[in-house]
Request: fold
Amino acid sequence: MREETLLPNPYPISSENWRRFSDGCFFSNINSIKVLMMKNFLKNLAAIFVLAATLSSCENFDLFNQDNAEALIEEIAQADNKTVVELISLPASLTRYVANNYFETYIESAEKAPKAGYEVTLGSADVLYFDLEGTSLDSLATCSSDSTGHRHHGRPRGGHGGPRPGSCGGVDSLVDVAALPAGILAYVTANYGDSAAIVHAKLNANGEYVVAVTGHVILVFDANGNFLQVAPLMHHCGGHHGTPIAIADLLPAITDYIQANYAGAEIKVAFQKGTDRIVVGLLYNGQRTILIFDGAGNFIEVRN
Reply:
């Protein structure tokens, strides 16, 4: 039985009438509270459903993108009507993506499949795929980066062309500067003035950190942040860029061409790629420039 609760009687009416009025107010207040509680409950429940739907839709959106990207990659890879594309004609978003995610290499060649997208081969032997707008197909949309500060931009794939991307046979991960091992930050600060000198950083599938600092210098560290080597302009995993050539051993035709066309440039690195290509990396006016020559030292093309 409900404990009787009466509101104070400020009015000149009988106690019985006031009791009836008070009871009505009591139940009315209780009902109002119940309605308010139900409204709040429904709002909270709706918020939970929205959150769940958001997370679910993110996963579904990712799976949707993955399925469509896979199909488009195969369409581009298998297309027999691809045409060679000059690098200057590639979408800006494509070249920007490569510069940010594959800063340790360069675009060697590109082909376009009409009404499908681009197949891009890097100097590191990675093969990447993009849609017609220059959006990466290998890098599928994700809800967020992981808790370590690593932002995965690719994954190993089978099928046409073998595993990709990542020249070390797996997935490379971009790494936020703040998430780098303390040893890397200390090394960069000691040798390059400040960790702000770090332009890009990634973790290769073989466990090496590859860090680009100002001046187009590539630093390589082990998984614990211990310094391993300096790689001028480019870093290759497993010799994919080619067989290193000592700068002093470059053909005179190559050095003469560089002196005539890139006066003041500093030759930083050179590779023999196959039997008919020589790749030379320069620092020219503060910018990285990649020159391609044939086996006899004749200039073929320039890459950046």
In short: The first helix runs from residue 15 to 78. The two ends are 86 Å apart (CA to CA).
